[in-house]
Each structure stands twice: as C-alpha cells, then as structure tokens.
Amino acid sequence: MYPTMNASKILIGVVLGFVLLLPVSGWSESTDKDLSRLTVSAEGAINVPPDKAVLSFAVETAGEKLSVVQKENQERLAKVLEECRGFNIPSELIQTTSLNVIPEYPPKPRRPTDGTLENNIPRIIGYRVVHHVNVEVRNLEIVGKVVDRVLQVGANKFSGIVWGLQNEQPTKLEVLKQASAKAQDKAKALAQALNLKLVRMINVSEGGVSPSPPEGRYRMAMAMDSGGEASVSAGEISIRGSVLLVYEISQK
Questions:
Q1: Which end of the chain has the lower number of beta carbons within 10 A, N or C?
Q2: pTM score, two decimals?
Q3: In whole angstroms, how far apart are CA 250 and each of 50, 209, 218?
C-alpha cells in the first residue's frame, strides 16, 4: 500500500514540475514590455484676454529707532489699504506677501583699528522695514488709476503686474482637448507614413497646463499721460499645455 502511495505522489510531483516549467506566455497575454510602441506628444495653446491683474507693491521705511520705523510703515500701509478700498477692492483680494525687518550696519572698515573683539562686532545703526503687498484688481479699467494712487499715498516700490484669469479651468480643458487632437493626428500620420497599424492606446499623460506670457504682450506698458495717470495695456495671456500618448503598434 505504502509503495503505491509514494509512486502516486512522485508522479503528481513530476507533472506539477513540468507544468511550472512551461513558458509563462502559454498561460497569459504578452506583457506590455514586449509590445511595439509609438510615442507622440503635442502642445495646445489658447490666447485669451485677462480678466484680473495682480499688482505687487511694497512700503519701505528706514530710521534709527525700530518703533518709529514700524509706526511710519504701518501708517503708510494703512493709507495704501484705504486707497484700495476706495476703488471697491475687497479685503480678501489684498494680501501681505512678506514683512521684513532688516537691521542696518555701518560700512566695514578695510582694516580694524586694533585686534580687540569689541571693534569686530557689528553695531546696529538703524532699521529698515519692508512690507510687500499683492492687490488683485478685477476691474481692468482702473488698473492704471490704482497703480498711480497707491504710489502717491504711501507705497514707494512697485514690482509690476501679473495678468491672469479668475477661472482658468474651462480654458485649460480646451487646451488639453486641442493638444490631444494634435497628438492623435500626429500618431495617425506617422503610422500611415511608416506603414504601421495603431492597435490601441496604452498610456496617456498630461504634461501640465499653465499660463505663460506671449512674447511682446505680457510686459507692462506704463507711461504717464498729461493727467499724470499710469496707462496700462493688458494684452493677452497664453494658456499652454501638453499631452503625451503611447500606442501599441503592429505591422500592417
């Protein structure tokens, strides 16, 4: 009895071993790494007029006593914010981006008068306070007026304008559709030229969608007219995006 059972076990083991040695391809479809591929990419771009402008200002004050410098900075900033509210710009569209307190030191002598440690320790002679603010203006007709008035009442640094869209999503989706259509057309043209067949699409990836300034349109054109008001041209912004498609291909 026992020898018969041992023989059966041995036979089953041999059969299982033979099955395990069979090529994997005999039991499943080919893996993706064995596929012939065609990879194409394309970019879409749509130029649109902006409907908002973000203005970057700074109020900078300096002096010997920190408390005096801070007070002057706060007073001038308050005038800036009051002027913005006068243009019906809500508080949620006004943002402090940075507030820096910078100690001021005298110029270092070329050579110390003596070798004592005390003469080598920097001595604070004053302070500089810089308050950076971003103001989002959604009525583009008053952008020049806001720039002019804010600089008159207290801001003494102006970093420029960033044009944008209040809602970029619809334009971004159109850009992706455009890029996808271009990529598909490119794949079809390549397949036809090389006598290949597009079997199926096996991968899609988005290369990112972001606004970018068209050359010669994004820079702020600001000049003072006879009335002393800044003249600002918005132009257009460009929303760009790319798509990458990977196809399985075969010979026709």
A1: N
A2: 0.70
A3: 46, 32, 46
